Amino acid sequence: MEAGIFSSVNDAIYLVKKAHERYLMLSLEDRDEIVEAIREKLLPQIEILAMLSQEETGMGNISDKRRKLKAAIANTPGAEDLITEVKTGDRGMTLYELSSFGIICTIEPVGSPAASIVNHVIGMVAAGNAVVICPNPRAAKTSIYVTRIINQVIVETCGIDNLVVCVDESNIAKVQEIIHHPDVDLVVCNAEEDALNGSYGCLKKVIGEGEASSVAMVDETADVSKAAYDIVQSASFDNNLMHTSEKTVVAVKQIQHELEEEFRKNGVCILEREEEITRLERLILREDGLVRRKWMGQSADKILQAAQIPYEGKVKLIVVKTSQYHPFVNREVRAPLIALVGAESYEEGLEMMLAIEQNYKHTAAVHSTSIDRLNEVAKKLQTAVFVKNGPALAGIGMLRANEPFTMMVANVTGEGTVSSRHYTRRRKCMLTNGFSIR
Description:
With 438 residues, the protein is of the alpha/beta class. The protein has 15 helices and 18 strands. It folds into two domains: 5-209 and 413-432, Aldehyde Dehydrogenase, Chain A, domain 1 (3-Layer(aba) Sandwich); 215-402, Aldehyde Dehydrogenase, Chain A, domain 2 (3-Layer(aba) Sandwich), CATH 3.40.309. It is 40% helix and 19% strand. Strand 4 (103-107), helix 5 and strand 5 (130-134) form a beta-alpha-beta unit. The longest helix is centred in the middle third of the chain and has 19 residues, at 140-158. Residues 8-263 form the Aldehyde dehydrogenase domain.
């Protein structure tokens, strides 16, 4: 078996533990050097990684995966994210520092395997941890390829082998064996809901992202043209695979027609005929109302063709005009297909947002020039990501240059936008009697 890739869970964790013991002896400067080396090595690999991800999973599009990978490689926070707190007084000094959590098991998603692993590993290694990667079975080839590169870079930089490893195949039994292993300290689950639910029984700290129903509202005071552009850029990005991308838009009816016209200018196909919407439902949804996985991450053109719905030009996004009770509103489709719901007023729109978001506390966006309204929605929804007058994906650092980037919003376990500091233990160190110069 090649370095960093294992069939045996016990072999993998035994060697990871040995690697972590050596890694703990390195300085923060050493960690920075390793992280920078990983970034430098991966940047020329963006095209290959984007193609591998798209070809293996059959989801998303290569151009957006390139952008996502670039953000993950260049903008994932490193050790600079590890904030130190100091308190001094007459009786001494107290120091709070963020230290390595230990060995982390990270359960990876299928939609963005390369970008997710890069984002997680940079943050975890910067925080002083070792990593065991459980790839999604449908993205194993891509995951192993990324792990191999990262492992090689770490060996070349500091001489430590197997600090980041990957199991060669991932199934429920193997994942359960890893998360219950006594030497695994932390479980990070960015995969599907079933995998997250299966992680809670390990009696260890879990950082988890669950389902989302990301909703945006456009009120009558908004810059409608900008709102339409922002929503389309975010909701169509990588065929709407990201949980953070808008899934439903609530529009105050006073500006709804204008919003629809602006949508069309940005490559949107708007569906309002009942027979076409029914055809789309039968294609996308199973009889039990769940989404057919084969359509997740597929292009708008492909979906419209399969549903035999006529359209003109290149379509980036499908918008379905419907009520707030439609299955497309209450299910996370994760395809370039979102619902548009009309509201008589801002107040009714806010109530709709609360119902549509379903208390997942993941992501919401509002387009409005009223500061009072922006603040009211933020307080009432309590989402981990809240974007004012911008694309929802901006909340994780996407679609904006040089913003700190994350592939994970831990809405279930409460960390929110996850970065290096969340992969640490907060430790307290005291020096008594002195050390204050005030």
